[in-house]
Amino acid sequence: MTVWHIVLIASIAVLGLKLVGYAVPPSVLERPTPARVANLLTVALLAALTATQTLERSGEIVLDARVPAIVLAAALFALRVPFILVVLAAAACAALVRLLGWMS
Amino acid sequence: MTAPERTPHAPDAVGATAAAVRAALGVGLAVSAYGVSFGALAVASGLDIWQTCVLSLLMFSGGSQFALIGVLATGGVAAGPAAIASATLLGIRNGLYSMRMSPIIGGPWWRRVLAGHWTIDETTAVGTAQPTLRGQRVGFWVTGAVIYLGWNLTTLAGALLGDLVGDVRMYGLDAAAAAAFLGLLWPRLTSKQPVAVAVAAVVVAAVLVPWLPPGLPVLAAAVVAIVVGVTNVLGRRTT
């Protein structure tokens, strides 16, 4: 498997899921369980990705400059600061902490 | 969900359409801006500029794109299947949005195919939030056009920039990706059930990181959603 295979297979799968939604009858949405599982699946994956992106490095859990950055991001999201500003603030926070040499 | 249709009073309809365009431009421009961080991170995680651009052109779904490069950044090509699975599972919600948008879009099959490609969080949110059917269609298509153009241009800019600066960790871009995931998650934490699922998913993923190959801890966390979703623990009774 090459990077191109990964990029193309994943792209076609994600695009295919979007198109499938237009082909099935909307009554499927009225059944609560599939809709609930799909919504919670999104929550679980985004939460797990937030955790691994914040804590993982080469297969280990590491506490570094990303931790204060994500805490800042959570505080700003809670204050309803716009998405792009929060992302920039998180990057700046991690860069600053590394520059000062507080956390690797 | 059905499209609420009002009898179109001429001035009211014009106002609703203008409001839809305003909402579309606001959301579209804000979202496009963070394509820069996707482009830079994609290059940093081992993709070349072409591969990065193909993701934004063809996959066109921010969460899935970040998930794919996030897993590849830690696991490399060996984590390919896990990367594909993460991106695909995150893409399931777009299928739900498609079902919601389908009666609103209408028209011939080719219009639905184009709409399908552009059916993401933001286009669905702006589209379904408008009060008139015309406003819903305008909101969807204008948001889609602005984001498709903007996201792809900023992805290219980010990829070129990432190629130039090299180690993106120095600029805190790894933390930016974590914040981006949190930002996509935040609006979904509206009741006890999703909050509990999010907390459990964080614990499961973090505990499994030292034991499983890259990418698999994230997929293991998805099991939490399936269990809670099927049993409806902590959920509201739906009758």
Ends distance of chain A = 33 Å
Helix content of chain B: over 70%
Portion of residues within helices of chain A: over 70%
Basic shape of chain B: globular
Tally of extended strands of chain B?
0
The string of secondary-structure elements of chain B, in order, is: HHHHHHHHHHH
Protein name (chain B): Branched-chain amino acid ABC transporter permease
Keywords (chain B): Cell membrane, Membrane, Transmembrane, Transmembrane helix, Transport
Subcellular location (chain B): Cell membrane
Family (chain B): Belongs to the AzlC family.
Describe the structure.
The complex is a heterodimer of chains A (104) and B (239). Chain A has 104 residues and is mostly helical. Chain A is 73% helix and 4% strand. Chain A has helices spanning 3-23, 32-55, 66-78, 83-100; strands at residues 56-57, 60-61. In chain A, α3 (66-78) packs antiparallel against α4 (83-100). The model of chain A has no long low-confidence stretch (mean pLDDT 90). Chain B is mainly alpha-helical and 239 residues long. The longest helix of chain B is centred in the middle third of the chain and has 33 residues, at 133-165. Chain B is globular, with a radius of gyration of 19 Å. Mean pLDDT of chain B is 88; it is low at 1-9. At the A-B interface, α1, α2, β1, β2 and α3 of A face α1, α3, α4, α5 and α6 of B.
